[in-house]
Amino acid sequence: MSDRLDHGLQSGIAEMPVVAVVIPCYRVTQHIVDVIERIGPECQQIYVVDDCCPDNSGEYVRTHCTDSRVRILRNQRNLGVGGAVMAGYEAALKGGADILVKIDGDGQMPPELLRRFVAPILSGVADYTKGNRFYDLSMVRSMPTLRLLGNAALSFMSKFSSGYWDVFDPTNGYTAIHRRVAAHLPLDRISRRYFFESDMLFRLNTLRAMVVDVPMAARYNDEVSNLKISRIFGEFFWGHARNFAKRIFYNYFLRDLSAASLQLVLGALLMGAGATYGLLKWFFNPGNPATAGTVMLAALPIMLGLQLVLAFLMWDMQSVPRMPVHPRLPDEPDVVNHPPHPSGDSLE
Q: Do you know which PANTHER family this protein is assigned to (predicted)?
C-alpha cells in the first residue's frame, strides 16, 4: 500500500485513493492544530467536527490553521463523540472519500501512523482497521493501571457482543473504514456516546465485515481524557449484553439455522432444567442430604448443557469473518441511505 500511495503522490491525485480524516473536537484546542499539521500528504480531506465545543474548536482551527484540506463542521448541539464521528462520516461519504480514518484531536493518536491503518484496506485484506495498544506488551507499562484493567474487561465483553474474538482494545478510537462498508452501516443508529467504537464492531459483524487490529503504542502525556472507565462501565455492560443478544438472534436464528443454533438452545435448556431441579430440591428439603440420584439428576443436565454451550462458543469463535466484504458491496458514491444528523451544519 505504501508503494501505491507513493506512486499516487508522484503521478497525481487522480490515481490516488481519496483518504479522509475525521477529527471530532471537544475541548482539544491545545492539541488540534498540531494534530492537523502532522497529517501527511496521503490524506486529501480533513473533517474537523466541532461538537458544540465550549472552546469553539471549529473557529479556533479556522483562525489558526491554513491547511487547504480542512473542512469544518459544527454541531448546533453536543452529540457526543460517536455522534460527531458519524456526522464526519456522512460529510466524507458525500465528499467522495474512499477511506475514512478517525483520529482524536487530543494528540494521543499519532497521525504518522495513518498509512498503517489504510494499508490493509487498500490491499484488500480488511474492511475496517482499528488500533490495538496491547499488542506490544513492553509498551503497555505506560498505560495507567486502572485504565489497563478497565480496557481488558471491556475487551472481553466486546468479544462476546461483537463476535470478533481475535481483536482487542475495542475502545481504541484510531480507526479506518472502507467507504462501501461505511455507506451500508446504519449511521443514525450507532451509539453517540463513548460506546460507539464497541457498537461499531457489532454493526460491522452484522455486515460480516473483516476487522484487522493495527499495533500502536499507548501514549499518555498531558492530554485529559473524558472517558472514565469507572463511570461508563455500567453503560458498557448493558450495551454489550444487548448487542450480544441481538447478534446471536441475527446470526443464528434470523439469518441462518445451524448446528450451533441447536447447541445453544439445547445447552441453555439443559443447564436451566438442571439448575431449577437442584434449587427446588434444596428449597423444599432443607437440611436433608440429597441422594446420589438427586445429585445426578441435577448435575448431569448442567454438565451436558455446559458442554453444548462451550461447543457453541467454539463454533462462534471460528465463524469470525475472514474475507473482506467491501468488494462485494455495491458502490454508491453519491448516495448515503441514512438521514443526516439534524444538528450538524458546515461552517465552510
A: RFBJ PROTEIN, UNDECAPRENYL-PHOSPHATE 4-DEOXY-4-FORMAMIDO-L-ARABINOSE TRANSFERASE-RELATED
For the chain, the three-class secondary structure string (H helix, E strand, C coil) is CHHHHHHHHHHCHHHCCCEEEEEEECCCCCCHHHHHHCCCCCCCEEEEEECCCCCCHHHHHHHHCCCCCEEEEEECCCCHHHHHHHHHHHHHHHCCCCEEEECCCCCCCCHHHHHHHHHHHHCCCCCEEEEECCCCCCCHHHCCHHHHHHHHHHHHHHHHHHCCCCCCCCCCCCEEEEHHHHHCCCCCCCCCCCCHHHHHHHHHHHCCCCEEEEECCCCCCCCCCCCCHHHHHHHHHHHHHHHHHHHHHHHHHHCCCCHHHHHHHHHHHHHHHHHHHHHHHHHHCCCCCCCHHHHHHHHHHHHHHHHHHHHHHHHHHHCCCCCCCHHHCCCCCCCCCCCCCCCEEECC
Phi, psi of 100 (to 5 degrees): -110, 120
Buried b (16+ CB within 10 A) or exposed e, 17-26: bbbbbbbbbb
User: Residues 331, 337, 342, 343: is their CA dihedral positive or negative?
Assistant: negative
Can you identify the CATH homologous superfamily of domain 2-250+325-346?
Answer: Spore Coat Polysaccharide Biosynthesis Protein SpsA; Chain A (3.90.550.10)
pLDDT digits (tens, 9 = 90+) for 253-281: 998 899 999 999 999 999 999 999 999 98
Whether the full predicted model's pTM is greater than 0.70, yes or no, is yes
d(CA 21, CA 2): 17
**Residue 292: pLDDT band with limits 50, 70, 90:** confident
Q: What is the phi-psi region of residue 335: left when phi exceeds 0, alpha when psi lies from -120 to 50, beta otherwise?
A: beta
